[in-house]
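ok, trying the design again with the full structure, not the truncated one.
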């Protein structure tokens, strides 16, 4: 495959670029030193250097000052070791500045530059980011990665860093526990804020890995006891793996198991998942590492195994006695289960005794006992945090438990029926019943008050009606009978021969008696009308209009705009008398032929209007000079008594409208 670009193509690009500018960048360190704003200005750069790494979307070039990258038109046109000339415009990359799409030509092929010696801190601080570095350490694991690549975990002192190699693992080459030197590109993963999240090294193939000190076979690694894990040694702790034996106390899904050797327990993380049974006696080779509070063995390899009996848990009398020595130990505790809740990793139990509260995690398939149960839990103790002790000591802080399965949870006592939750539910029901009873009592009181008020009004109405009927009977049996007798005598007098003055006096007296009789009959009829007593103004007006129309022979129309509230009997009487007086005035003085009574409520005001088509009058004429002014005075007095406003709207020849406006009291509150 042709991988060198034609030289005339490069010359054409230079010709198009025009004369050299004073701002042309010629060193990798100049590009690397740009800030984001400067890089995004697209400054021109012309560099010469050696290709140290080729990625699909970027080629990394190193000169004598530093390293930068550019985006190639074809990445397969370049190989590591090519000496090239590249020309392009700067841009900001994911982490540091480089060149965008650029043109380049290969001058010759040579050796890659030697790697810059770097330690773990150099890598995570990005000091040599995107530069060829040389790192040394002990290989912990080698495993296949995606797309035919390999992942090598390299311990650099007490820290472990990933090395990604772009070829599959070598089956014939065992590198675990080998001290090596690796040359590759210092790289890593970056977030949207252009921050280095995780540093790693990119190597091209296994030729970049040099063995400095080969490893011993796993079975020949130094054998130590559990008590010697990361314990003091005069010569310090080595970087290489050790062998250790123990009995399996717990094996969880994945690569984490827990072992016990005599009275000492520790956790083991295997580099490859392996199935174990509780009680298995195993021998492993791995690397000691501090796991939070106590030492563990990581990246371990199984050396040997044999069957055994499940170990007995360490009995703990109270939760308070769980201390740092129990970290990774299989223990058994007795406590009260106060709560349980689901999490992504399974169910968490909240255990409590008289001195302490802690959490125990169950596998997903295990169902938690009911809250309030007295339980016995067998589980692995884990120290989640530590706290300062006396002097140079540190002590266990937060402690949790991790059960292996359903058999680790034993219910010793079922919860009492009177649990806090049930008591709360009962109190809530009692509270609701009490609230409903209180509301019912309030509603009942309101109903009783309403019924009492209605009964009182009914009794008062019946008493008033009975009294009115008694007065009407008295009027009928006395006054009306006397008036009838006077009328008969006047009629007899009219049959005799009288002089002109006598006949005129008799006729006037006869007319006066007739008028008094008519008024008396109307009064008796009004006293017997139950609508006033019932507070029904609409019915009272309709009855009065019917009598006036019958007596006068004129049309008296009544329009009721409902609803109209019930009113006190006195108010109904005065308003009916105002309407009657207004109709009488229209008939006697205005010569009206059509009269209309209208009743309604407008914005909380009771409005009574009496309109006629009579001759009207001039409102500018004083009332004392008008016929019927005494009736108008009576209407005004009755309105003032009620607290109402009365207005006459009239003009000569345009009829008259009497408008009475009575403000209504506000509706009573439900709980008044």
């Amino acid at each position: 495959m042709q991988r060198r670009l034609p030289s005339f193509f490069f010359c054409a690009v230079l010709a198009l670029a025009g004369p050299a500018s004073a701002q042309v960048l010629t060193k990798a360190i100049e590009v690397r030193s740009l800030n984001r704003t400067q890089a995004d200005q697209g400054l021109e750069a012309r560099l010469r250097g050696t290709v140290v790494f080729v990625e699909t979307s970027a080629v990394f070039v190193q000169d004598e000052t530093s390293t930068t990258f550019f985006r190639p038109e074809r990445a397969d046109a370049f190989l590591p070791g090519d000496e090239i000339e590249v020309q392009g415009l700067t841009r900001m990359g994911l982490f540091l500045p480089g060149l965008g799409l650029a043109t380049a030509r290969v001058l010759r092929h040579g050796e890659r530059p030697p790697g810059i010696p770097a330690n773990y801190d150099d890598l995570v601080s990005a000091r040599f980011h995107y530069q060829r570095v040389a790192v040394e350490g002990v290989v912990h694991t080698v495993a296949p990665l995606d797309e035919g690549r390999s992942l090598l975990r390299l311990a650099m002192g007490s820290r472990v860093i990933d090395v990604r190699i772009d070829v599959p693992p070598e089956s014939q080459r065992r590198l675990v526990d080998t001290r090596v030197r690796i040359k590759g590109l210092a790289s890593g993963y970056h977030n949207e804020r252009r921050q280095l999240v995780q540093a790693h090294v990119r190597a091209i193939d296994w030729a970049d890995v040099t063995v400095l000190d080969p490893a011993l076979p796993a079975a020949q690694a130094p054998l130590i006891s559990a008590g010697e894990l990361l314990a003091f040694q005069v010569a310090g702790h080595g970087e290489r793996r050790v062998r250790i034996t123990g009995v399996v106390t717990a094996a969880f899904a994945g690569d984490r198991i827990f072992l016990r050797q005599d009275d000492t327990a520790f956790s083991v993380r295997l580099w490859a998942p392996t199935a174990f049974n509780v009680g298995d006696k195993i021998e492993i080779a791995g690397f000691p590492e501090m796991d939070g509070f106590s030492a563990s063995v990581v990246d371990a390899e199984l050396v040997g195994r044999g069957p055994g009996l499940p170990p007995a848990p360490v009995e703990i009398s109270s939760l308070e006695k769980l201390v740092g020595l129990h970290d990774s130990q299989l223990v058994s505790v007795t406590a009260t289960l106060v709560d349980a809740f689901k999490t992504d990793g399974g169910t968490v139990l909240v255990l409590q005794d008289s001195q302490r509260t802690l959490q125990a995690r169950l596998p997903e398939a295990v169902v938690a006992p009911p809250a309030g149960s007295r339980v016995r839990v067998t589980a692995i103790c884990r120290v989640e945090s530590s706290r300062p002790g006396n002097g140079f000591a540190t002590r266990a802080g937060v402690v949790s438990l991790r059960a292996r399965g359903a058999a680790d949870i034993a219910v010793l006592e079922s919860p009492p029926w009177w649990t806090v939750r049930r008591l709360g539910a009962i109190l809530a029901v009692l509270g609701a019943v009490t609230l409903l009873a209180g509301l019912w009592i309030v509603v009942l009181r309101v109903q009783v008050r309403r019924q009492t008020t209605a009964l009182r009004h009914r009794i008062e109405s019946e008493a008033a009606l009975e009294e009115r009927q008694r007065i009407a009977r008295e009027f009928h049996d006395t006054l009306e009978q006397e008036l009838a007798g006077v009328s008969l005598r006047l009629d007899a007098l009219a049959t005799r021969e009288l002089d002109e003055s006598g006949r005129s006096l008799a006729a006037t007296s006869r007319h006066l008696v007739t008028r008094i009789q008519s008024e008396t009959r109307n009064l008796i009829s009004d006293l017997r009308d139950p609508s006033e007593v019932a507070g029904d103004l609409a019915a009272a007006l309709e009855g009065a209009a019917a009598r006036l129309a019958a007596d006068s022979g004129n049309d008296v129309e009544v329009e009721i705009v409902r609803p109209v509230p019930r009113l006190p009997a006195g108010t109904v009487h005065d308003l009916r008398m105002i309407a009657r007086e207004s109709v009488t005035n229209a008939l006697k003085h205005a010569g009206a032929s059509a009269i209309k009574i209208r009743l309604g409520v407008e914005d909380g005001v009771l409005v009574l209007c009496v309109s006629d088509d009579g001759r009207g009058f001039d409102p500018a004429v004083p009332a004392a000079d008008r016929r019927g002014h005494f009736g108008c005075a009576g209407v005004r007095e009755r309105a003032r008594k009620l607290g109402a406003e009365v207005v006459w709207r009239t003009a000569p020849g345009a009829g008259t409208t009497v408008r009475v406006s009575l403000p209504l009291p506000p509706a009573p509150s439900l709980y008044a």
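Keeping the full-length input from now on. The radius of gyration is 56 Å.
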